[in-house]
Amino acid sequence: MSFFVFILGTILGSFFNVCIYRIPEDESIAYPPSHCGKCNTKLKALDLIPILSWIFLKGKCRYCKEKISIQYPLIELLTGIVFTTIYLRFGFGIEFIKYIFLMSILIISAVIDLKTQYVFFSVSLVGIIGGILFAIIEIFMSKNITSILLSIIIPLVVLGLIILLTRKFEGMGTGDLEIFILISLYVSPKVIVVSLFLSIIFGGIVSAIIYIKGYRKKHIAFVPYIALGTYIAILFGENIFNWYLSISMF
Ligand SMILES: [Zn+2]
Fold this sequence. Notes:
By secondary structure, the chain is an all-alpha fold. Helices cover 70% and strands 0% of the residues. Helix 1 packs across helix 3, helix 6 packs antiparallel against helix 7 (174-184) and helix 8 (189-212) packs across helix 9. The protein is globular, with a radius of gyration of 20 Å. 32% of the residues are buried. Zinc ion (ZN) binds at residues 36, 38-39, 41, 61, 63-64, 66.
């Protein structure tokens, strides 16, 4: 079953590559079918096997020998690993579907942010609509409307406070906040707190390294750190939160 989930992840990862390339170019993600960026040859099934095609073709187009970015197999592998670990943690159920959907949105948004320094609202919007649908499903399943409403309202209040407090310091961009708001639709308040905390630590460490090394970039892509922080928070967030509470008792 884990192997099947991994394969599913790599196939969807292959589709995410298409989204990552086409969304910033304002192209349709459904049409035309996958083709080589250089010679325009339509790719056949054999060229589209996740990870393996890239390895067998030694990272080159079969037809014109143009180099194919290693980003393609890496995104496929990454998606496969993320899906498999979520399956191993939660088993097969609504949580699994909800979290792989959230992580899919985050992977696409994170890589686009890395490449372009922009957060695309079209991607966030799919995540927000999905999050609302999952929240509705969970209300019907658990019939515990209060806890679900709280899990949406608390993060929004916390985020609102952060926006107010960091306005002076040119903190996160509005795109990053948009991403946090969509995450809050999927996860519990504990998990969002851990996610926010980890994202700021990871982003802070990397910013510090960039600063020490003397590079001065105007803007660092922050969504990759949010995606990584959220991934760890989904898998271990409740444990990290409870561990923190237990050590802060002393
Ligand atoms: Zn080609």
